[in-house]
Amino acid sequence: MNILDLNEKGAKGALVEEAxxxxxxxxxxxxxxxxxxxxxxxxxxxNIAFVGExxxxxxxxxxxxxxxxxxxGEYPEVKMTSxxxxxxxxxxxAPCEPVCPVFAAVHSPSEDLNLQVYNRCVGTRYCGNxxxxxxxxxxxxxxxxxTPLNNQFNPDVTVRRRGVMEKCTFCxxxxxxxxxxxxxxxxxxxxxxxxxxxxxxCPADAIxxxxxxxxxxxxxxxxxxxxxxxxxxxxxxxxxVTYLKGE
Amino acid sequence: xxxxxxxxAVFPDLEPAANAIDTLRSLGLSDENMNVxxxxxxxxAMLGRPRQWTNVPRLALGGAGGGFLVGTFLVFTPLLYFxxxxxxxxxxxxxxxxxxxxxxxxxxLISTFLGVFLDSTFPSYRPMEYVPExxxxxxxxxxxxxxxxxxxxxxxxTALGAERVELAxxxxx
Amino acid sequence: xAATSQHxxxxxxxxxxxxxxxxxxxxxGEMNAMVMEAMHTTSWKFWVMAVLLGGxxxxxxxxxxxxxxAEGLGVAGVNRPSYWGIFLVNTVFWIGISHAGTFISAILxxxxxxxxxxxxxxxxxxxxxxxxxxxxxxxMHMGRVWLAYWLFPYPNERQLWPNFHSPxxxxxxxxxxxxxxxxxxxxxxxxxxxxxxxxxxxxxxxxAYKILALGFRGTEGEWTHLRxxxxxxxxxxxxxxxxVHTIVAWDFAAATRPGWSSTIFGPYFVVGALHSGMGAVxxxxxxxxxxxxxxxxxxxxxxxxxxxxLMLIISMTxxxxxxxxxxxxxxxxxxxxxxxxHWHEAGPMGWMWFLMLIVxxxxxxxxxxxxxxxxxxxxxFVVGLLINVGMYIxxxxxxxxxxxxxxxxxxxxxxxxxxxIPLSIGTLxxxxxxxxxxxxxxxxxxxxxxQEGQMAxxxxxxxxxxxxxxxxxx
Lengths: 247, 173, 474
Known about the structure:
Chain A is of the alpha+beta class.
């Protein structure tokens, strides 16, 4: 079965909802200042919990996007080279998908995104091990949301409990909202009509999001630039995120 | 036809038991009317008995086939409920081999195990002809002979070294 | 002159009889009594040990596990990038130990190695109880273990089948197959001994044995069916055994991690399983011989000698596979793999790597070539213990230590075990406790097989030499 077929039939003959497009992202490392506004915005938008200082120090922070720092030299002659925001690359051949025993990590044929279905996850964490970008995080505990922080929840996004994996969804809730609005008005989504939380928050406009199947969209044009690379391309994961970096 | 009665002769060793079988045969008993009960497996050839039939290998093969069918069911069901994962086809080749192998072996082994029960009519807790000395290494020969010849058979068995010859009572094991 | 040489011959024969269980037959009734006595005799030390272990199991296993389920995996030491830690190490370790039982009762039976006869059942018990601990460890590592039944194929309203692309699903089938198969293979040769125990017991024991003996009498038909089935099992369970640990190895080899994606993992893990398993068997046999009554008749230095030889060969095979894996990774030049190898040897846990090589390779090679040392129970006990330590370290290196190094240096972080430690001790205590309780209920020595072997063995003179001969009774 060709998973690129937009009008494909799912189980019991249900028609898969007609998709608006294939989504992708471009991150410009030459513009990124490492301010981590994207990290904060993502946490707000997706009801991500705060794990506390101890767990964060032990590598358990639930950052769906993390900003990695690179530098050259030894202290005190240290030169910051670049920042690299890392998030789920939504690989076309995602290594995290075949290894989940309960089909919690699956591919969306219509939007060409990698999905994490929280309700199916039993927490074996094989997907986390198998992601070459280490983009997946796990809910190690039930985290507290002390009042009044619980008022800040986004009603479009589930609140996950302990024992499930989670990761960046390219703000699927925003994609669906924009698709619904466009469908209601009988038009296509305009390029730049919406953006995921990280792209919206970035002050340097380093993160660009849009339809990769539309050759005129901003993200398509940027991804075709000579500066563009795919991370860990040799693994054959076919990621949907292009990183722009000069010399 | 005279009444058939069952007698159990207990022998201490292999050689006298083999002689006893020969003697019983020469006295006119057919092989179906004799049975050997022992605490260690003594092969039929050692006692000059015909080879025992067993259905276990056939049941085992049947079970292997059944296991294989269950395996194909597991492997091909995803064709009905397609969920796309990571660039692999719906029915992946090498993983299917693994599943088919494991379930075939499981079918083979379970049916072998149950085949023993079926063939031996296990478990059976009704009273049976037995004496506990057999698990202590004695060899018992259970034979059905006409009632009027009992005296003759008993004398023959005792002459060959039977420790005791008695009516085989069905006792609770 | 003639009298003297006859006298010498006699004592040579006597020596053979003393060394070889198969040449030293006792009346069957006496052997039965010895085995029953070994089961019934318990000293106060046994009960102290059992209560102690029971306490550890209650607190360390079930108590700590309940806490783990209630609080979540945060109380364990796993993190990103080491998503798998000691729970998986334990799983692989216990499955490895369980392979020894099958090796002894199946492979040695197929190759007609007569020395296996007194301890096949003791080894098979290790298989069953080891698999129980492996199962516990797998369930412990799951984030939402109360939904574990989703891994089984059953009709459901979510219209979902388990994902058979995943090595974890293959694991499920393989381990289930192996557990069922080894339990059945434990039970089949046990039936005649249950009948023997039924004949020699009273009270609740007699009732229990009567039920388990299924009405076995020892008729020709019963023996034929049983032996045919045992023969089929012996041959068929060998590929199952190989496939199970290979599939467990594929949990790692099918992943994309540096150091894991190695094609040799399949056979490497199987040999590793045999390595640790044989060490464990020797430990169990040494303890059984030292603590249970009458076992010194059944388990003799010749058995330790034979298993010791096997341990030496398996240690060499393990070293071959380890070096194979290492040289290919070292030569390949992949920067992440090179980083990982450097981390193994020179990182903070580098001492573990060297210790592993010393106890898995150096010590067996130095000790086990000597027949006298091989035949001494406490020497091989120590070697077996060290090998198990070494193999545990090997799996620890492969899982949490290798997971630390991945292609994202920003995520590298050491793994520090948390609640895994009491849980691991709990599984070990549970294993020992189950074994101790089983030894009081199940005759550890398959007496009918021992007698079968004794019937087939004799001494014969070849010229001036008196030798042991074995007849093929099949």
